[in-house]
C-alpha cells in the first residue's frame, strides 16, 4: 500500500488512513486530489485583498479612513475575544489552568484595545473629525453587536441591568423585560415616555432578536456562572482570581476610560453621534458595570471607577 512512501513515513500514512476511515473517506482519492490542489499562499489564506477593500469613506477627509480602520480592527479583536470566551462556555469540566489561560488571552486583547485608543486620541485631526462625524449620525460605536455579546458572555445578566432597576429584576424576569432595562438602554431611551432615539431604534431592529437568543444561551454558560460552578479549591485558585479581576477591571474601567478620554478630546461638551449624554453613560462610576462582583471587596465595589 502506497509503495511510493518510505518506511520513515509509514506512521504518518497510517494515521492519515485511520483518520479518513473515521469519516468514511477514501485516502487514495484524497491523495489523487492533492495532485491538482494549488499551494497555499498568504494572500489566499488571509485574504488581504478582500479585507483591504472594506474601508469605504463617506467623505473626502483623509482622517476618516483612520476612523474606519480603527473600528474595524476593534471588531476583529472582539471576534477573537468571543472566540476565547465561547471555548470556556462550551467546556463541561473546566480546570483552573485552562480558565486562567483563556482569561489572560482575553485580557491581552482588551489591553491592546485600551492602548490602541492613542490612535483615536492623537491620530486624527480634530478639525477633520468634527466635519466627517456629522455625516455619521445616528451611527455610533455603541452599535457594536459583538461588544454586547461579550458582555452577555462574561457575566450574569443582573450585572448588566441599569443600577436603578436591579432590585426589581431576578432570574425569573422575562428576557424581554430585562432587555428593556439593560444599562446601555440609558444611552438612547427616555424612561419617562419609553421613547428611544434613532441610534437605539435602528440597533434593536437589527440585533434584538439575536441578543435575546444569546442572553438565554449565555444565562448558564457565561464566565461568571462557569466560575461559580467550579469546585471550591479551584474557585480559590490565586492565579484564576487574579486573571478574572484583571479582565473585569480592564474591560469595565481601563478600556472604558480610554474610550471616555478619547471622546472627551474630540467631542468636548457635544453629544455623541448617536445623541447620547456620553459622559454619564460611559463613566464606570455611574454605570457600575462589574462582571465578577464577588471577587471585589466592599470598599472596591463602593469606589468602582473613582480611581480614574
Shape: globular
Q: How many individual helices?
A: 16
* CATH C-level: Mainly Alpha
Number of domains: 1
Low-pLDDT parts are none
The chain-level structural class is: mainly alpha
According to DSSP, the number of beta strands is: 0
Provide the gyration radius in Å: 24 Å
| The CATH architecture | Up-down Bundle
CATH-assigned fold name: Methane Monooxygenase Hydroxylase, Chain G, domain 1
- Residues in β-strands, percent: under 5%
Mean pLDDT across all amino acids: 88
Major sheet characteristics: none
Straight-line N-to-C gap = 69 Å
Account of the protein in words:
There is one protein chain. It is built from 16 helices and no strands. It is mainly alpha-helical. The protein has one domain (61-302): Methane Monooxygenase Hydroxylase, Chain G, domain 1 (Up-down Bundle), CATH 1.20.58. Helix 5 runs parallel beside helix 8 (145-154). The chain is globular and about 70 Å long. The termini are far apart.
Which helices and strands, and how do they pair?
Elements lengths: L9 H13 L4 H10 L5 H5 L1 H4 L11 H27 L6 H27 L3 H7 L12 H10 L20 H5 L18 H20 L5 H6 L3 H4 L2 H30 L10 H5 L1 H4 L10 H5 L6
Brief description of this entry?
The chain has 308 residues and is mostly helical. Helices cover 59% and strands 0% of the residues. The longest helix is centred in the last third of the chain and has 30 residues, at 238-267.
Amino acid at each position: 500500500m502506497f509503495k511510493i512512501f518510505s518506511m520513515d513515513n509509514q506512521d504518518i500514512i497510517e494515521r492519515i488512513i485511520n483518520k479518513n476511515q473515521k469519516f468514511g473517506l477514501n485516502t487514495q482519492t484524497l491523495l489523487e486530489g492533492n495532485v491538482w490542489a494549488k499551494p497555499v499562499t498568504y494572500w489566499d489564506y488571509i485574504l488581504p485583498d478582500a479585507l483591504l477593500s472594506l474601508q469605504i469613506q463617506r467623505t473626502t477627509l483623509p482622517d476618516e479612513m483612520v476612523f474606519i480602520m480603527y473600528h474595524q480592527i476593534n471588531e476583529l479583536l472582539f471576534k477573537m475575544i468571543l472566540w476565547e470566551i465561547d471555548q470556556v462556555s462550551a467546556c463541561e469540566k473546566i480546570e483552573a489552568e485552562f480558565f486562567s489561560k483563556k482569561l489572560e488571552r482575553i485580557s491581552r486583547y482588551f489591553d491592546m484595545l485600551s492602548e490602541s485608543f492613542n490612535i483615536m486620541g492623537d491620530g486624527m485631526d480634530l478639525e477633520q473629525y468634527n466635519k466627517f462625524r456629522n455625516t455619521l449620525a445616528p451611527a455610533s460605536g455603541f452599535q457594536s453587536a459583538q461588544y454586547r455579546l461579550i458582555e452577555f458572555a462574561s457575566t450574569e445578566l443582573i450585572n448588566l441591568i441599569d443600577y436603578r432597576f436591579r432590585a426589581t429584576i431576578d432570574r425569573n424576569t422575562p428576557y424581554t423585560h430585562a432587555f428593556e432595562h439593560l444599562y446601555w438602554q440609558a444611552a438612547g431611551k427616555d424612561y419617562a415616555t419609553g421613547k428611544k432615539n434613532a441610534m437605539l431604534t435602528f440597533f434593536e431592529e437589527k440585533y434584538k432578536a439575536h441578543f435575546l437568543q444569546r442572553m438565554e444561551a449565555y444565562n448558564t454558560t457565561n464566565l461568571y456562572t462557569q466560575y461559580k460552578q467550579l469546585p471550591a479549591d479551584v474557585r480559590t485558585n490565586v492565579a484564576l482570581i487574579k486573571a478574572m479581576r484583571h479582565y473585569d477591571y480592564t474591560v469595565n474601567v481601563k478600556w472604558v476610560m480610554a474610550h471616555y478620554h478619547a471622546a472627551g478630546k474630540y467631542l468636548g461638551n457635544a453629544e455623541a453621534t448617536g445623541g447620547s449624554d456620553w459622559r454619564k453613560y460611559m463613566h464606570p462610576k455611574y454605570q457600575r458595570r462589574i462582571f465578577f462582583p464577588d471577587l471585589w471587596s466592599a470598599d472596591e465595589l463602593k469606589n468602582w471607577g473613582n480611581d480614574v
